[in-house]
Amino acid sequence: MNDKKQQSGWEKFIQSMTKANELGKEEDIMMDHDYDGIKELDNVLPPWWTAGFIITIIISVFYYTQVFFNSEHYLQENEYNNEVAQAQEEIEAYKLANPELFKTDVSLLTDDASLAEGKKVFGTYCVACHMADGGGGIGPNLTDDKWILGGGMEKIYHTVSEGGRPGKGMVAWKASLSAEQRQQVSSYLITLQGTTAANPKAPEGDITWSKQ
Ligand code: HEC
Fold first, then answer.
1. CA-to-CA distance for 125 and 176, rounded, in angstroms?
2. What is the CATH number of the domain that holds 201?
3. Which of 134, 138, 129 lies closest to 186, judged by CA?
4. Whole-structure pTM over 0.70, yes or no?
5. Which atom, in ligand 1's list, is nearest to the CA of 146?
6. How many angstroms separate the alpha carbon of residue 193 from the centre of ligand 1?
7. What is the rounded CA–CA span in Å between residue 13 and residue 7?
8. Which atom of ligand 1 approaches the CA of 177 most closely?
9. What is the tens place of the pLDDT at every residue in 149-170?
10. Ligand 1 centre from 164 Cα, in Å?
């Protein structure tokens, strides 16, 4: 017991937090059982650990009351709904701020300037597969009245925006062309319908549509 007096404050603190049994006095807490020579000491739970355990219990009560009685904010379902509502607001604001990206008017353009723009887009992005005169190559003939995915401004705009059937090669151009460009190129493409291509591909598709 004499050495106890010489303990520093830190050592006392460690001792109070661990309640470790002094070395050399194991017999005091040795338990009776003996498994093939392996014995067990009946150590107390270290107070630091017990304190941590109690703190988690206190936190769990707080957490429980927040989740069930402050459900406006912390119930998963409400949290989800609140976030969705907020995202919806942000989407609306984004749509308002970027009207050109969310143009829903896909009416046929007939003015020369728009058709000239459409021709430019067609010449840049589409001729590789559809040919300059729309006669078709990798992609189908766009001058005949047979359509795989549907003719008419609305359907064509949709095909140009969303692409063709998976694996066919016609990509969704909304990723690289603005709504206006898609409207222009679709309108231009409609001017090709009914013309005679130099080297037309045989008609494909079961849908019949022509301008007239
Ligand atoms: C890599 C080749 C490729 C390019 C580039 C391409 N297309 Fe296509 N296009 C296709 C193929 C293949 C199809 C047939 C899709 C299917 O069968 O689902 C198609 C189909 C279409 C159709 C539907 C035709 C129908 O019969 O319903 C339209 C309209 C069209 N393309 C317009 C365009 C426009 C406009 C562009 C340029 C912005 C373009 N394509 C660029 C390959 C291409």
1. 10
2. 1.10.760.10
3. 134
4. no
5. 26
6. 14
7. 10
8. 38
9. 999 999 999 999 999 999 999 9
10. 7
